[in-house]
Amino acid sequence: MIISLHIKNIALIQELNLELKKGLNILSGETGAGKSIIIDSLNFVLGDRADRSLIRFGEKEARVEVVFDSINQEARKALAEYGIENDDDVIVINRMMNEDRSECRINGRIVNLSTLRAVVGQLVDVHSQNEHQSLLKTSTQLNILDSFSSKIAEIKEDYHATLQMYYKIQAKLEQYSTAEERSRTIDLLTYQINEIEKNMPDEGEEEALINGRKRYYNFQKIYDALNGAYEKLYGGGYESALNLISKANMELESIEDCDNTLSDICDRLESAKIEIEDIAYSLKDKLSENIENIDIDYIEKRLENIRLLKKKYGNSIEEIAAFLNNAKEKADMLINAENSLVQLNKEIDIVSQKLIAQAKLLHEERQKGAAILSKSILAHLNDLGMKNTVFEINLDFPDTDEGILNNLTLNGADKVEFLLSPNKGEPVKPLAKIASGGEMARFMLSLKNVIADIDNIGTLVFDEIDSGISGKIASEVAKKLYNIAKNRQVIAVTHLPQLAAMADYNFLIEKQEIGEKTLTKLKLLNENETYEELMRLAGASSGSQTGLSHAKELKRQATEYKCSL
After folding, report:
1. 54 DSSP assignment
2. CATH number of the domain within which 529 lies
3. How many CA atoms lie within 13 A of 388 on its CB side?
4. Range of the domain at 14
5. What order do you get walking across the sheet with 13-19 strand by strand?
6. Under a CB-based contact definition with an 8 Å cutoff, are residues 510 and 501 in contact?
7. What pLDDT digit, counting tens, does each position of 146-163 carry?
């Protein structure tokens, strides 16, 4: 649930802190005091589009922070999925906007709007007269219907396992295609296999070819360097390295009798002389090689064949080898397709019949649940003054087994849609086409009362849910609002005394002029202040004893109702 909401520089709000608790939290105040601004601020921090016109006049930046605690398992899973840390079941969401950008953070980490909405969607549901997008989606309606049945989850689990098996077999069958297509594929694979095996280089061959090409095109440069090295080591007469080492050795040998520690150095010089002489002979052998011994035409042709192999079958010899193995496996599979197809077709027939039976079972359970859900919602709508309302749950299900297989989704083959006719004589329409915000609000309130024990969202927010109602219906709306708030947090904006009297906590929103500025302020009301606000909402003048008695009576009736539950 929401434990605090902090708003800064939104419209008339310079800075506002709202501390909230579990139960029914009612916000009221004069028209224009800023009740809708609080809901707009909450919507903003929960992921609504950044409307920069909301930034307070004269300010460059607006911020809203909301803090949740006691989060549910679904929210924990969403946080884990997006890698957001959460050690103490508290979520802090910050959202900022200025003229250039907006930024949102969850527990200090910057996230995009889709991540923000995925997390808060598990925590809070905001309902205003024109904002019922979630309820208007047929996917949401199907989930609501399914949550109403205790058997659906178990049937779905079995159905999902069968559907996964069906898709796996179907994928294998699609690999075989038709006999004509298989024949063409086998011909292509055979050509590719032959081409690769004919031109595939041996290990190290490509490197040797490249080196041979380099030697051919740099032969003179190589010859000059080899000859220069040979001359310096051996063929340079008195100045050759071999001759200089010999002289150095002779110098040391002449004093060996004077210093017996020099024998080791002399031995090493002799070894160096032998090694240089061997290197010189190797260089001479290399000098004897002829450019005509390099078949450059063969080298170029062979390298071109390898290049074409890489272009067609892989960027490296390893990738070409992997392509060859896959081609051989696929060719073998297609050549022996007939036996495999017979077995796979038997398997998919069995799985298809099982899927069809499970989809029908899902449909039957939904039909049962739809009848009970419709009846329950109509009873609540009747209490709320919508006696002539017709509500239906349309379950569109294919007539044939083939139709079922062609329309399978993760939820079976049903297409679910809620249909409503709020006025006598009018045909039922999808919820999205119901024009009246008040009618939609009452429908939603009825639905929430029916599924209160199933819905796991901890906070519900209602903005102007009492639009267009009064008297006895207002009392019924207040009761149903409290029914939802018994085991969760409800935040509601109202202008009706009946709803305000039912509150566990009353908050007054006021517009104040301070100097040259107009500001929106909010405060938690005590008992006497609550009576004053109930009187104002009922139209009684301040100090009216009759008005005060009426306010106390409303509060007494509300308390009596709460105690009766």
Report:
1. G
2. 3.40.50.300
3. 6
4. 1-123+457-541
5. 13-19, 2-10, 61-69, 90-98, 102-106, 109-111
6. no
7. 988 889 999 999 999 999
